[in-house]
């Protein structure tokens, strides 16, 4: 007859692997790495850290979550890392800048990932982009953007640069882009120093969180908004869509603004075990009803309106099925 110790050892050998795969056992005592594909201090970084403070308590085993900033290339390095090097064990999640949703349309060799292969957890928000000019500049109305050159800061592969290129090509604006900035925080400082006259696209919620006094003190003017659906407080600001030159240009801009509907996308690498992916999605969705999370967001002056993985996957599917005419026009406009 088998002794008790042998039976325990045998059972562990038979069932140990499956037991360890159970999320409540797997995540206990573990640390999750949250890759923020953005510079410290900006809107994406602040939202990543907000999520890291609260999401772990909704995961069985309550693992800690630590943020790692990986801003290079406007999240391109982070996205390539997720696709090719990150562990697939459910201990790595990420918040990428939304430009990564469309960058694959350009078919550039440095883009080493396919967005359809990622596992999406959801998005913390949708966004509206605003074009701002220093009040001290000569830019007083939207029409000035079409008649004079506005010097704006750019972040490679990110909205401040991409939007300026699109507006110049599709609308006929005259933005002069100065690249080399790591994020909107740096661009904002450069605007304050007088090095830049403005910015072509700053997320409205991030701007309000980082520089709420600028409008109050009359330091900037809001000249244009980029979105499919404008918030009530921006109803008086002209929409970029209303200045497009034709139906194809409008379709390109609508595609571009579609990514803003899932503007703060969270994801995992491909091939994460299905039970752990389900656990992570459940934990992310739980933030919707987490009063402490929302109170923390309010204290931090961060706007959150969670969107689930199903909605993000629909946007990803829409982007990957873009017709060739719109794709080619987008690619040409963003060169």
Task: Describe how the helices and strands are arranged.
Layout: H1 4-21, H2 23-26, E1 31-36, H3 43-54, E2 64-69, H4 76-84, E3 92-95, E4 119-123, E5 129-134, H5 144-147, E6 150-153, H6 159-171, E7 175-178, H7 184-193, E8 198-203, H8 204-210, H9 212-216, E9 220-226, H10 247-258, E10 265-268, H11 274-286, H12 291-299, E11 307-308, H13 309-320, H14 324-333
Parallel strand pairs: 1-2, 1-3, 6-7
Antiparallel strand pairs: 3-10, 4-10, 4-11, 5-8, 5-9
Helix pairs in contact: 3-12, 10-14
How does this model look, in words?
The chain starts with a helix and ends with a helix. Strands 2-1-3-10-4-11 form a 6-stranded mixed beta sheet. Strands 8-5-9 form a 3-stranded antiparallel beta sheet. A two-stranded parallel sheet has the order 6-7. It is of the alpha/beta class and 335 residues long. It has 2 domains: 163 residues, Bordetella uptake gene, domain 1 (D-Maltodextrin-Binding Protein, domain 2); 131 residues, 3-Layer(aba) Sandwich (D-Maltodextrin-Binding Protein, domain 2), CATH 3.40.190. It has 14 helices and 11 strands.
